[in-house]
Amino acid sequence: MIIPFRKMHGLGNDFVVLDARATPLPITPTRAAAIADRRTGIGCDQFIVMEPGTNGADVFMRIRNPDGSESGACGNATRCVADLVMSEAATGTAAIRTIAGDLPSERLPDGTIRVDMGPARLDWAEVPLAREMDTLRLPLSADGVSDPAACSMGNPHATFFVPDLDALDIPRIGPLLERDPLFPERANMGFVQILAPDHLRLVVWERGAGLTLACGSGACAALVNAARRGLSAREATVSLPGGDLRIAWRNDGHVLMSGPTAIAFTGMIDLDAFPA
Fold this sequence. Notes:
Layout (H helix, E strand, L loop, with lengths): L1 E9 L2 E7 L9 H8 L9 E7 L6 E6 L5 E2 L3 H15 L3 E6 L2 E7 L5 E7 L21 E2 L2 E2 L2 E4 L3 E6 L8 H9 L9 E9 L2 E8 L3 E2 L4 H13 L6 E6 L2 E7 L4 E6 L2 E9 L6
Parallel strand pairs: 2-3, 4-6, 12-13, 14-16
Antiparallel strand pairs: 1-2, 1-19, 3-4, 4-5, 6-7, 7-8, 8-18, 9-10, 11-12, 13-14, 14-15, 16-17, 17-18
């Protein structure tokens, strides 16, 4: 079964995007993981399948991590899919549906894409955490980091605030924190250095993916948690290794994320060449 694919990215956070709106595709967790492999597949941080939209949504976006597990949110991928949908329809808005909810999107005058990522979920059961506690301060630590805040942006995030990002060994501590028993569904780990009230520097260890150049939902969580701690304003630039996102936490609880998208290349893939 030979089909077209797009390789896209938002600030270097890269995706294989398949279109299953017209014809269902035989994508299993095993096959998605094989295609996401950077040595024997196409390679990506997340594997995206566009499925038919219903009840007001332009498209349903299914998200899989490189290990095949399903994710409820990916901000950079949402911008990429929204860009495709808006370009096809020659319109400035799109509604992207995920298993975590609907994400209204729009193209801004400068060409960047802004997504309403929905409300930040702050209750322990919404993150989710393994037991009841204050999500503003978690009893979690590893070498050099402690006392994170947590929230859900459609997927679970914990945010650590540190004086010097460069002093951390994130590839070592990230996997340990991701799989801490406190997180029954694992969690994304964000490490934030506050540069100014309106400027954060962020590195994210993503569950199921590891270090990536950018994480849109992680940037949203970082801004929300920083503002909750009184460390930042409710709107800021979040600088990631791949570039900058603009994040705003509105008074109604919704979080807006703005940033660029790009198509790296397109091609054809034989799905039968990968294990089902």
